Amino acid sequence: MVGGNGLFYPIVGFISCVAFIYLSFGDLWINNYGDTKLSFVERNGTQFIVDGKPFYFNGWNSYWMMEHAADESRKHRIKTVLQASAKMGLTVCRTWAFNDGDYNALQISPGQFDERVFRALDHVIAESRQYGIRLILCLVNNLQAYGGKTQYVKWAWEEGVGLSSSNDSFFYDPSIRHYFKNYVKTVLTRKNTLTGVEYRDDPTIFAWELINEPRCITDKSGDTLQDWIEEMSNFVKSIDRKHLLTVGLEGFYGPKSPKRLTLNPEFWASDVGTDFIRNSKISTVDFASVHIYPDHWTHNPDFEYKLKFVHKWMLSHIEDGDKELNKPIMFTEFGLSTENKDFDPLKRERFYKVILDVIYKSATLNKSGAGSLVWQFLVEGMEEFNDDFGIVPWERQSTYQLFTEQSCKLAKIQGALPSQMTYLRKLCT
């Protein structure tokens, strides 16, 4: 036993070094992907299901892929990030399927689309399939970046049909609801020019996300946002019954939830017009999303406090998935800011490990915590697109090792891997 334990860590270190080298020279290993076959992700109670087996995953965010694919000088970054992430055993990526009225806009004005940018999204989906990566595609932003609900309100105001100049009118203005429904229908029924498959029929797409981080602060009761989610989720399902759907919530408990007092990061979180339980219970919402940003959500600068908050925050939502919702819980964004005065890459890795460990334990116990998506992966030369959370994970071996080990630990739980998970099979066997 003692001899075995003594050998374990050197072996793990050796394997990590080999994998790190493989990341740089992987094309010598696999250079012919063929037509990767993927099945639709389904849901059975609190678990995601692929080919009849529970699906727990390790993933990431790269919101910028469509915009970069629209620019020939930056298009190569799509392959770079997909290939590198696949070699780390990651199988799910969340990205934007919107850019409203901004540079390289997909939707130039209500109902008017740039075919060049749509072809860029076609490329992102087709390229992801080649690497066995499933995509979560978000349909609009609550924030102003890439247009978001602000742009929709501006369009309605400029056309003289807007009810209010408030950004929150996005959720209740009939004209804006019509704009958004038209956008959703156009995206879901888009036929990919590279694969010939309509988006709604493509299993490369894991799920649709209605909106990134919705908040409606003008109605703290949450009724306005609840009504919008019900209407839009039903609309999506009327067009596409094959894909799963989530809202895009941050996970805050609402004003009527008893958990608001003990689990929310601070008192303000129950007053932003959302309610994790209520919003996620809607029958047309297939799984719940949660974000993790303790350094942006709380004024407490203590790092150990943040780690304890993260652990409690995750366990609470997994408990909700198991006992209240009977749905999977996906932690769709998490990050630690480099702008913290005491920032240290080692602290960030400790932060990551807390999250990855909770997901692994959830998987071992067949609980609802189904996977996590780190925010965010970049590639070399993308400094101008970095916020205070972005990483190039293969630049730091210890960070890289964290994610590859998580991929293999989750893969081991799931047993024999499908043949289409080429990189994961090679990495872990």
Automatic annotation (TrEMBL):
EC category name: hydrolase
SUPFAM superfamilies attached to this UniProt entry: (Trans)glycosidases (SSF51445)
E.C. code: 3.2.1.78
Classification via Pfam families: GH5_mannosidase
Domain Glycoside hydrolase family: 39-378
Transmembrane segments annotated in the record for this chain: 6-30
InterPro entries: GH, Glyco_hydro_5, MAN-like
Entry keyword annotation includes Membrane: yes
Superkingdom of the source species: Eukaryota
UniProt catalytic activity: Random hydrolysis of (1->4)-beta-D-mannosidic linkages in mannans, galactomannans and glucomannans
Oxidoreductase found in the keyword field: no
Keyword set, alphabetical order: Glycosidase, Hydrolase, Membrane, Transmembrane, Transmembrane helix
Protein family membership: Belongs to the glycosyl hydrolase 5 (cellulase A) family.
The protein, known as: mannan endo-1,4-beta-mannosidase
